[in-house]
Structures are given as C-alpha cells and as structure tokens.
Write a structure and sequence with these properties.
Structural class: alpha/beta
Bound molecules: adenosine-5'-triphosphate, 6-O-phosphono-beta-D-fructofuranose, magnesium ion
Radius of gyration: 25 Å
Number of strands: 18
CATH class of the largest domain: Alpha Beta
Number of helices: 14
Helix content: 25-40%
CATH topology of the largest domain: Rossmann fold
Distance between the termini: 46 Å
Length: about 475
C-alpha cells in the first residue's frame, strides 16, 4: 500500500513518513492499494494580519507543566477523517490538523487578551463544564485574566453588559445543568454583534452552540475578516440531538441517552403491568433520531423505534398498528420510542401551524407522542371494542437535557475547551475543535456549519436497531406481513 499526503490548498504532494504495516502473507492485489490524504487548511489570523508576531508558549514557564518531547503538536500532525478504507481500490481521506498546544503562540501579552464566552440555542448537559474549563484553562494555562461571559446568546453581545469570570466563580459550575450564562434563540444581528465584540475589546471569542450557532459564527468570522480585526473566533459544538456533522458525537449526548433510558424503563413497567399495554416515549431529536436510536439500542426494552429519517404509516397491511397488534398479542405489551421529529408529515395541522417557526427560524414541531397516543386509542377501540387497552405516554423532553453532564461528558467537555484554547492561542480562527475518530482535531467552522449528522438507515447501526426490536420497514405494499416477520 502506498500513502501520499497532499496540502489541500497548494496541491503539492509529499510522501508522509510512515509505512503502513499489516499482514501481507497472503499476497494479493489489495496490498497495492493507495491511500492518499489531503490536509484541510484552517483560516489563520496571519491570512490577513501578516505582521503578527509569535512568542514562546507560556506553558514553557508554567510551574505546573513540564513540556517534554512530543508535547507540542506540529503542523504536520493530522487526524484522518475516514479511517475505514477498502484496500481493494485507491481511497482518499481529508486530514484535519490535530488539536493541542503549539510551541509558538500568537498570544499578545496575556494582560491585553480579552476572551468572550457565549452559549446559544437549546440546553445540553455539559454547557457549564465547557464554560468552566474555558475560564480555568485560559487562566491557568495561558495567564489570561480578562475573561467575560456574554449573557443570553448572540443578542448578549449588543444588549447587555458581559460578566467577568474567574476560576473561583466558576469552580462548581460543572455540577449544574443548564448554562450559567443563559442562552436564547434568535437575536442574530451581525453588525451589532461584531460592533459589540469590537466595543468590548474582545480578541478571543468562544461560541458554544449547535448547527444554527455555527452558521451564525461563520458570518461573524467573515465580518471580522472583512474588518481585518485581530480577533479569533472558535466554535464549540453543542447539541443534545447529536446532529452536528464530522465530529464523533456532541457533548451531553451520552448523558441524554442515559436519562432517556429511565423513561423507557418506566414505559416498559407501565406497559407490562397493564392488560394490552403500550408504553410510548417521545425523545428529543428535531431532525435526527440519534437519541431515540441509542436509547433503543442500549435499553433492549423497545419494540419499535421511530425516527425522522424513516417513514412510517399507521393503518393497513404493513403499518405500525398491525405490527403493534402482533407484539401485544405475543407479549401482552409493547414499548414504542418516537423521536420528536418523526411522522411530522402525518400529523394533521392547522394552517397557522404549517409555518410556525421559533425565534431562530427552526420549524415548531407538533407533538407526535400525543397524536400517536390518541390514534392508538381510537384504533384499538375500533378494532377491539371489548378488550382492555392502555397507552402510557411519557414525554421526558427537557428532563434529558436540563441535567449536569455525566463523568464521560464532563471529561469530554474539558478536552474540548482546552483544545479550543490551544487553537486560538496558535492564531487559528474560524475552526471547531472536536473528536474525529477518537482524536481531537481542528475542523473549519464552515465545514461543520454545513455538515449534518443524520442517522444512516442503511448502515449497521440501524440494522442493529432492527435486530434488537425486530421491527420491519413500514413500507406500503410490501409482500411480507408482520406476522411472517415476528
Ligand atoms: N443561518 C443562520 N445565520 C445566522 N445565525 C443563525 C443562523 N441560524 C441560527 N442562527 C442563530 O444561532 C443561534 C442558535 O440557533 P438555534 O436556535 O437554531 O440553535 P442551535 O445552535 O442549532 O442549537 P440547538 O439546535 O442544539 O438548540 C440563534 O441566536 C440564531 O439566531
Ligand atoms: O424548546 P426549545 O428550547 O426551543 O428546544 C427544543 C429543541 O431543542 C433541541 O433540544 C435541540 O435542538 C431539540 O431536540 C428540541 O426540538
Ligand atoms: Mg439546531
């Protein structure tokens, strides 16, 4: 196998100093496959501020750090976006710069550094941990003393005074759910935001938010570059739905899945304890079904999982009701998990509801759980008027995201915050830090803002769901009926 490495922007090709090592005792054509990768360039302050000077990383003189060989990350350290390859044909992968401390930094005197931290969009477990670790990391690692929290999302840049933060103040924040800085949707006024950043003298801006926030951050970055300001902007990806693309997963997601399982367990107990009982749980997931999928996979109590990425229908051969009837007949009960964005096109809506949007422009969803409950009851009363039937609907919505992060998410938040700080100190801007195939990397903000992580219903994970639930595809006119499958 040959490996080649390309600098994406200047198209020079250089061999990477490594030799792939795998068992080639059975020599065949797969051994000659070519794996090439190209480094993804990040925006940098020196792209438009050519005279900026570097200095030695202050970690060199930090009494609590002892930088040893290999401690500093160099520009040739990369993380491959794709690690699964088919050796029978040439393949290619993007390569992101690895996150971590650089030996030279573009940090102005710490006394002239003013960092701003803002949280936008919905809540997510771990927000307070990220804020805490940004404050403590900036303070302890790089000696920054002017760190500010911008209140209530993007609008806070122009509508309220920032609050000064320090390690003592934020010491216990990781133990609390929510965001101590407050958050909001909407209020994105580009000129006012960038004016606010300039007026407050911020030169580092840490923006914590989801897909919408990242799209806003790209606009802020562009405006800052247009004004040629010495201000680094970095995005820290946050979304309980896990719908941000490229990174392995978003922080808080695991905590949310854990919480979701408590609701599934309760639904199972309720369903099992009733005659012909259905336990119905609605979980967050505006346009992706990751929480529903992972909670289903890990609980093993779910008979059917419905997510926005798959279509379903209720009545008739091959429909959801036929399937549930079969399950109830076999087991006496069934558990149904539905992501909030599933089945939205099936629910009757009034004209006004069709165009309803939240302050950020996201469509307002109808309650798929409430609708399913009522449709299930009508259907059973029609089909089995003399038999008992119970639907217990559990909607734990905000309970799964308004909680502190679990241990794994807390650790993840810490690494994210520190990665972001190191990148900003290196003069990078317009980037997002996040784990890619288990290694922390810097990804262009623009790429993250455009990428979406949807459940791939053709891959193994969805096949696992099917093997756990034994649910069919709800496809009209299929030849098998559910009795054949179960
Ligand atoms: N395309 C966009 N351009 C500029 N700003 C945007 C854009 N989309 C959203 N925003 C702004 O980003 C902020 C957060 O957006 P949104 O409410 O969609 O949440 P989010 O970041 O996607 O997080 P989550 O979905 O996890 O709640 C809001 O202030 C919103 O006005
Ligand atoms: O009620 P809010 O705060 O607008 O948030 C609800 C939405 O936010 C999310 O938690 C994240 O996007 C979605 O799952 C949910 O639809
Ligand atoms: Mg969003």
């Amino acid at each position: 196998m040959a490996v080649s490495y390309t600098e994406a922007n200047n198209l020079t090709t250089a061999p990477i100093p490594c030799s792939p090592n795998y068992n080639s005792s059975n020599s065949n054509s797969t051994n000659t496959a070519t794996l090439s990768f190209s480094a993804v360039q990040l925006p940098h302050l020196t792209d438009y501020l050519r005279d900026l000077q570097t200095r030695t990383n202050p970690l060199e003189h930090n009494p609590f750090y002892h930088p040893s060989d290999g401690f500093y990350i160099t520009d040739s350290d990369v993380v491959l976006r794709h690690v699964v390859h088919d050796l029978s044909s040439p393949s290619h992968s993007a390569a992101y710069h690895r996150a971590g401390p650089r030996n030279r930094v573009f940090l102005d005197q710490p006394s002239r550094t003013r960092a701003a931290i803002v949280t936008c969009g919905g809540l997510c477990p771990g927000l307070n941990t990220v804020i805490r670790e940004l404050v403590v990391g900036l303070w302890d690692l790089y000696g920054v003393r002017q760190i500010f929290g911008v209140k209530a999302g993007y609008r806070g840049f122009y509508s309220s005074e920032p609050v000064e933060l320090n390690p003592k103040l934020v010491d216990n924040w990781h133990k609390n759910g929510g965001t101590a800085l407050e958050t909001s949707r909407g209020g994105f006024d580009l000129q006012k935001i960038v004016d606010g950043i300039q007026d407050h003298g911020f030169n580092q801006v840490y923006i914590i938010g989801g897909d919408g926030t990242m799209r806003g951050a790209v606009n802020i970055l562009d405006e800052i570059r247009r004004r040629r300001l010495n201000i680094s902007v970095t995005g820290i990806p946050k979304t309980v739905d896990n719908d941000v693309g490229i990174i392995d997963r978003s922080f808080g997601f695991q905590t949310a899945v854990e919480r979701a399982q408590e609701a599934i367990s309760a639904a199972h107990v309720e369903a099992e304890s009733a005659v012909n009982g259905i336990g119905l749980v609605k979980l967050m997931g505006r346009s992706t079904g990751h929480i529903a999928l992972y909670a289903t996979l890990s609980s093993r109590e779910v008979d059917c999982c419905l997510i926005p990425e798959i279509d379903f229908y209720l009545e008739g051969q091959g429909g959801l009701f036929e399937f549930l009837e079969q399950r109830v007949k076999e087991n006496g009960h069934a558990v149904l998990v539905v992501a909030e964005g599933a089945g939205q096109d099936l629910i009757p809506r009034k004209d006004a509801q069709t165009s309803e949007k939240d302050e950020s422009g996201n469509p307002v969803l109808l309650d798929v759980g409430g609708w399913l409950k009522s449709e299930l009851k009508k259907w059973w009363a029609r089909e089995h008027p003399d038999d008992l039937f119970t639907v217990k609907y559990i909607d734990p919505t905000y309970m799964i995201r308004a909680v502190p992060a679990n241990a794994t998410d807390n650790l993840y938040c810490t690494l994210l915050a520190h990665s972001a700080i190191h990148g900003v100190m290196a003069g990078d801007t317009g980037f997002v830090s996040g784990p890619v195939n288990g290694n922390y990397a810097y990804i262009p903000l623009e790429e993250v803002a455009q990428a979406k992580n949807e459940v791939n219903t053709k891959d193994h994970k969805w096949a696992w769901v099917r093997s756990v639930t034994n649910q069919p595809d709800f496809v009209r006119n299929q030849t098998l009926n559910h009795a054949d499958i179960s």
